[in-house]
Amino acid sequence: MGFSLPVAIGCSFANPNKKVFSINGDGGFHMAIQSLMLISQYNLPIKVIILNNASLGMITQFQHLYFDDRMCGTTLNGGYRVPDIKSLSTAYGLPYFRLTVDRLDDPDLREEMQAAHNCIIECVVEGLTSVSPKLEYDKPISKPLPLLPEEEYKENMLLEA
Question: In what residue span(s) does the Thiamine pyrophosphate enzyme TPP-binding domain sit (predicted)?
C-alpha cells in the first residue's frame, strides 16, 4: 500500500514525455498523498487512478480471514474515513474526474485518458474486495497464495527455494 504513486513519479522522470498510469486503492493513495505535490510541481504526465471502495481492502481481507470479521479502522462502519478526493485534487492543482458505473462510456473520460497531462480519476466501486495473490499470515513473502505450480515457482525465483 502506498507504492504506486512514488513509483509512477520515478517512471515519469525516467521516461520524460510519456504518460504514466498509477493505480491505487483509496487507502494506499492516502499513504503516499504527498506525492501529489511532485506530480503538480513538475507537471508530470501521470494519470492517478483511485479505486475507491471506502475501505482499506487488503487489511479488511486479513481481518476477515484471521480476526473473525472484526473490522477496526478499515471500513466506514469500523471508523475509516475517506477524505474528499476532489478537494484534494483541487488543493494540488490537478484535474479531477469521477467515474461511476453509469459513466463508464463517458466521452470526457476517453478524452482525459488520451490527454498528455496529469489528472486524478476517482473510480467509485462498491463493497469489500479481495486481493489475490495475497500474503498468508506468518508465511514468507515469496509464498503468496494461491501458490504457483512448483515448476513455475522455481523458474521465476531469483533465489533458491
Answer: 1-117
The residue among 18, 26, 20 whose CA lies nearest residue 7 is 20
Residue 37 lies in a domain: yes
Helices assigned H by DSSP within the chain: 4-14, 26-31, 35-41, 57-66, 85-91, 107-114, 150-156
How far is Cα 40 from Cα 94, in angstroms, rounded to an integer? Answer: 7
pTM: 0.80
> Per-residue pLDDT for the chain (161 aa), expressed as one digit of tens each?
889 999 999 999 999 989 999 999 998 999 999 999 999 999 999 999 999 988 887 788 778 888 888 888 888 888 888 889 999 999 999 999 998 877 778 888 888 888 889 999 999 988 767 777 777 778 888 888 888 898 988 888 776 64
Residue 148 falls inside a structural domain? no
- Establish if 44 belongs to a structural domain: yes
Q: Report the number of distinct structural domains present in the chain.
A: 1
| E strand or H helix at 149 | none
Please name the amino acid found at residue 124: V
Q: Is 149 within a domain?
A: no
Scan for cell 470526457, then name that residue: 108
